Every structure is written in C-alpha cells, then in structure tokens.
Amino acid sequence: MNDYFRTALRLRQEFEPYRAMKKAGIVASLDRSRGFTVKDVVAAIQKEYGVDVQVKCQANMIYEIVMYFAPQGRDGYVPIDVPDEIRHKCGKPNAKLGLPPKNMSDAELLELKESIGYDLNEVIKF
To answer: Tens digit of pLDDT for each residue in 73-104?
Structure first.
C-alpha cells in the first residue's frame, strides 16, 4: 500500500497540470470572467505531456483534472489518453470556466463550496 501511494505522489508531482497550464498562460482564478475553456486547458496539458485528460466541472468551475497512466517496465508508468467512454464534457463548448488556485484561503474554499456544492478543501490542500 505504501508503494502505491508513494508512486501516486511521485506521478502527481511529475505530471503537474497547473505547471502545464501556467506555461500556456492559463492562470488559476475563481473569477469566471477571466476563465478558460476546457479546450484551452486540455490543449495546454496535451502540449506539455502529450495526452488527453479528463476535466470535471460544475457551475462553470473546473474542480478536477484527471490524468490516466499505464504501467511500463518494472516500476514505471506513462501517461495515456483518457478513455473515450469516461470523458466528461463541461458546459458549453466555448464557455469560460473558473479554475481554482492550488492554495486558497478558507474563505475562498467556502465560497467555492457554496457555488459548486463540492468541497475542495481536501483535494486542493492535499
């Protein structure tokens, strides 16, 4: 079990969506008017890591980006495209979505929880 979580944390650090988005000029913000489309977010991550990802959103706010991996070799993993059957669509194709910053104050987390009904406290501060 420890190896599983150690590997998950290593992959999370190595394949960091926020880093990929920042390189593409996508800056996380709760301000939906400054938001980006799902297409923008996916393109930024594809450019950095070469794979499609699953983007989940609610109330015009992205709350999760999921990257999938396949085992390679004895202890390695490589990112793979998200399977078509589980790809989520977020709102209208060109809708601007908010993207929560990684480190938010308790007040911002509460505002986000109230607006989308999803508690990001554990996810973001992990």
So the answer is: 887 899 999 988 877 677 777 888 888 887 77
The CA-CA-CA angle for residues 114, 98, 12, to 5°, reads 95
Distance CA 47, CA 24 (A): 9
Who has greater pLDDT, 70 or 117?
A: 70
CA–CA separation, 99 and 29 (whole Å):
5
Eight-class DSSP state of 86: G
Q: Is the domain 2-124 a CATH 3.40.1160.10 member?
A: no
Q: Where are the domains of the chain?
A: 2-124
Q: Cβ neighbours of residue 39 under 8 Å, at least 6 residues apart?
A: 93, 94
pTM passes above 0.90: no
Helix/strand/coil for 69: strand
How buried is 108 (Cβ within 10 angstroms: 0-12 exposed, 13-18 middle, 19+ buried)?
middle
